[in-house]
Amino acid sequence: MSSDADPTPGLQLTDEQWRQRLTPEEYAVLRQAGTERPFVGEYTDTTTVGEYHCRACDTLLFTSSEKFESHCGWPSFFDPADSDAVILRSDDTLGMRRVEVLCANCHSHLGHVFEGEGYPTPTDQRYCINSISLRLVPKA
Fold it and tell me: Which fold has domain 2-138?
């Protein structure tokens, strides 16, 4: 898991190219660090077995085996599928101290990670990820 010293993204597009590739709603979250409203995302309550890929670049980020019910309003995972798939970066916006989760390949905003909340998971972490940042590939 990379952190703070962001390496150069593997996929680099211009702002206009991102706008052509993504819907306005996807662009607002993935490229402008927006947040979708709680309890409305496509994958909030999904229990489908499969892989969750970055909607912007298709990098594998999480799997259904790391997904858990947190009842927070967004899909929650206790760990990425591969620790190098995400970058963690300090986020002090909105008067809060949080840790932002970015796709390591394209540096798109995915959500935030929280620790020490008492969820019964192996890592005691909750990767709170916007559904609109993900694309579920169901297992065949």
Answer: 2.170.150
